[in-house]
Each structure stands twice: as structure tokens, then as C-alpha cells.
Amino acid sequence: MAMSMPHQICALSGTPLTAETGGEVPAKGNTTASAVWRTPLTNLRVSVQKTGADVDMLSPTPSPPLSPLKGGMRPDLSVACQALMEAPAETAAEREHRLGNSPEKGKGVPVFVMMPLDSVKMDHTVNRKKAMNASLQALKSAGVEGIMMDVWWGLVERDAPGEYNWGGYAELLEMAKKHGLKVQAVMSFHQCGGNVGDSCTIPLPRWVVEEMEKDPDLAYTDQWGRRNYEYVSLGCDTLPVLKGRSPVQCYSDFMRGFRDRFENLLGDTIMEIQVGMGPAGELRYPSYPEQDGTWKFPGIGAFQCYDKYMISSLKAAAEAFGKPEWGHTGPTDAGHYNNWPEDTNFFRKEGGGWDGEYGEFFLTWYSQMLLNHGERILQSAKAIFHDKGVKISVKIAGIHWHYGTRSHAPELTAGYYNTRFRDGYLPIAQMLARHGAIFNFTCVEMRDHEQPQDAQCAPEKLVRQVALATQEAQVPLAGENALPRYDDYAHEQILQASSLNIDDQSSDREMCAFTYLRMNPDLFHPDNWRRFVAFVKKMKEGKDAHRCQEQLEQEAEHFVHITQPLVQEAAVALMH
């Protein structure tokens, strides 16, 4: 083909894509290098049994090849391309702010701690207020920079459109301010419940659920008709399907309401707004839902493009390419949630549909829809919080299983067009850079050999690829641990990953922040707390620290001793 697929997509939408937009992904042949970190062996190995040994039944017509481009219009794909053209140029000051350049650059990584998911109760009050107060005091005394808190759409705007109840959040933010803690506020437009680590259930607002019950196609849908109600389908982002407003308008109004209510804390106590963009607050499709046992690790997941709004977009794309038959459905031979790549015709390494021209067409459309979604919301968030002294961040999922295969099937079903021959994270990083946003990534605590190698898990290699992509796009990288860990081995891995020692160009670069999952009674267990305090001190020292580790650990031991009563109070209070 004369043009790369992203350029064809923009050509179909009638919008030119210039070289400066950063929308083009590397051509085939760009491979992902191995991780450079070397770690000692350990016995922390996880075994896994392969689930779903059945090879998927082939459809009458497997994934077809793609015909040459035949022109046409794609109005539904014009939004992202137009955003690239209209976005105001970033000023030098904004760029310095985004990249975190300051006299303190290279002086360590600030640590934040995630609050419990149910920190604010359904009655709009702070949950376990006494425990929360003692816990925040303990965190501050340990040298923690701040906390991350979910601001749930399903709580604040629960009862009626445009009616916001910020009770509980106002009190929690004042508590953080009193203890001198900074806050990363997450605009959580997803349902709580059904994902890894979800300890409570907070549905979407009642009136949104009512609309989804009237029109089930507002929910993400797989090829077997299973609906997912964690997050409104991005296929209807700009349609007035929620009581006369579009989903993106609802998200924008919510963020504007938050800004207006807490404007006095923005840039002071509240220093970051993380914008939720999908299930678990991540920019992805709900391709691996744990609810009701639909998916189990390390299954490949399933494409989520079968609601009528997504199919309408796919149909328009297929017709524009001159192959209308491609618009009726997604790949029909991509297996089931718990298959492995080699179980399927679409994802298998030899002759798999993912590597053919049809696969390129479908995966480009599917991943571009996700990028368009991010463009829309970020454009709004940037305008709403402009000049308010806060940074904007977006969380990307760390999908490390089957990373060692050619197709990277779980990443593809989630919307990340990343394969052995294509960098799927650079376009995401470039999109975030255009809007001055931080790239927040999970699974930073994991090591390759801890994960099941028969599933070719490679979290270290994945983190390294993301670090390189963010370095090239000049976007700051922040990290999170995907699962709770309290051991020194995980802490050491986080320290190594956050130092971003990936090549000779990253000598003065570190992660801009790390958020620790999560505040709970286990964190305040004496042994866990001692290790955590030492970890925070090491993170604050940074990769150029000159003090010896023994000295830091001795200081941590002394600190743990003198703060023991406070930590015991927090631990006991959290258990009640």
C-alpha cells in the first residue's frame, strides 16, 4: 500500500495527517528489545493451568484478506484527526510543567498511596473517619508525598443528571490538606466491582443504568452478545444518549463541577487529575472481565466491538475501503476469553489473521477508536483544568501475559495494537504528549520469572517498551503496582523500574511519581510497615543517591520504632 494504515484512516475521514502530529506508528521490522535489568533468581514462581483447551470452531469464512484502498469518506473517524489540527501549540512553560522540569528534577521519585475504594460511603460521608485520620497522619510521617483517591461518578452524580453531591470528598480532601498530603484525584467514570482487587461495588449513576437498560447497546458487547456495564461504550461517545447529553459531555460536566467545587485546592492540595477512560479507570476495552468468571488469567480476552454503535463505525470503515462485507462483524476466528493465541486462527503465530491485511484493517480501526476516545476526553480535560496548576494523567493497563508471542493477543483485544512487529504504545504516548498528559502505567512491581512462563508473560520487557515509547514521545511516565506487594523483592523491582535506566539517553530521567497500591490494614503490619518506610526513603533518594542503603534502613528502623503507637492505631482502626 502507498500509505500507512493510520494515514489511510485519516484520508478516509477527509482530514490530512501531517508528520508533526505523531500519529504514525513504526513500520514492520521495529522489534521490542529485551529488558536490560538483571535480577537474582528467586523461588517466587507462579504456576498456571491452561484453561479452555478447546480450539475455537472456525466460522464459515475465516478472517478475510484486505483489498487495496478504494477511497471514500469516514466522517466518524474525523474527530481525532481534527483534534490534532486544532489543538493549540504547547507553550514552553507548559512543556516544562508537563515534563516535570524543575531544580528538583532527578532528585527521586515521590510516592503516593492509593486510598481504599470505599473511602467515601454511599451516604456521602468519609468511611472509617478515625482510621482515615490516623492512617493519613502515619503516611505523612513516613515521608509519603500524597494519596490517590477515586472520585466516583456513581456516587457524586448518582441520583439525577447534573446534580452533584461532593459530600465526603470535601471532608477527605480537607483531611489530606490538614496532614500536608498532596492528592491525585481520579475521575472514576467506571463501575467499581468486577475487576482485580475490587473490594466493593459502586455502580454507574442510576439514571445512566436506566438508559443502558432501555438501550443495551450503550454497553460494550462481545460477539456472543454478552454485555459489559462497567463503562459506557465509546461507540456512542458523541451521541446524546444519556438524557440528552453525550457520554463525553457528561464526563466534561462532571470534571467542570469538580473544578468549580474544589478550585481553592487545585494546584495546592490537589496536584493531579487522573481522567478515567474505561474499565478500572484505564484507557482500554473491557476485554478481560473477571465478573462471573467470564475471564481467567492468562486468557487472551475478547474483542468488544459488537454493540450497534461500534458496528455502525466498523461498517462505515469497511464501506469506505470498498469491502462492505467486513463491516458486519469483527474477526470470527479469534477464539474465546480463556483461549490462548495458538488455539485460534486469528492470533496464531503462523498465518494468523492478525498479521494479514484484513487484520491490519480491523486492528487499526479498533485501536484508533480507543485513541479517538482518549483525544476527546483529554481535549476537554485540558480546557477545563487549564491554568489551574494541576497535571493531567491517564492510566494504561499493564497487559503482560502472552507478551512473548508474536501477536500479543491480550493487548490486541484490549485495544493496544502492539505486536512483535509494531509498537502499540508509542501512538498512545504521542497522543498523551499532545495534550500534556502523564502516562501512568501498571505492573511496575513484577518480574518476568515470577509469572507463568508457559504463558510467555514478560512484565519487565513490557515496562521497558513503555519507558522507551514515553522517552521518544517526551511524555512523563508514572508507575503503579498492579497487585498488592509488601516484600523487599517487589520494592527493589519498583526502585529499578522507576529509575528508567534503559539506555544511554535516560541518565537524568526517572519516573515522575509512583502510586502504591493500597492503604489497608496489611500495610500497617509491623514488618510490612518497616519495609514500606525504607522503600519510601529509597524512592525519595533517587537513582543518584550517595547515602548507603544500610544507613537508609537504619533510619527507617528508628522511624518505625518511634511511630509504632500511631501505626498500631491506624491498623486497629482500619480493621473495624
In short:
With 576 residues, the protein is α/β, with parallel strands linked by helices. It has 17 helices and ten strands. It has a domain at 109-294 and 367-573: Alpha-Beta Barrel (TIM Barrel).
List keywords for this structure.
576 residues, alpha/beta, TIM Barrel, eight-stranded parallel β-barrel, two-stranded antiparallel sheet, disordered N terminus
Quickly name the level 1 CATH class of one domain. Answer: Alpha Beta
The rounded Rg comes to: 23 Å
Q: Give me the CATH superfamily of one domain.
A: Glycosidases
Give the helix proportion (percent range). Answer: 25-40%
Mean pLDDT over the residues = 84
Overall SS class = alpha/beta
CATH topology of one domain: TIM Barrel
Strand content: 5-15%
* Terminal CA distance: 64 Å
Shape: globular
Q: Count every beta strand, where a strand is a DSSP E run of 2 or more residues.
A: 10
Task: Please mark out the parts with pLDDT under 50 across 5 or more consecutive residues, or reply none.
Answer: 1-94, 100-105
Which strand order does the major sheet show?
A: 1-2-3-6-7-8-9-10
* CATH architecture verdict of one domain: Alpha-Beta Barrel
Q: What order do the SSEs take from the amino end to the carboxyl end, as H and E?
A: HHHEHEHHEHEEHEHHEHHEHEHEHHH
Biggest pleated-sheet summary: 8 strands, parallel, barrel
Number of helices, counting only DSSP H or I runs of 4 residues or more: 17
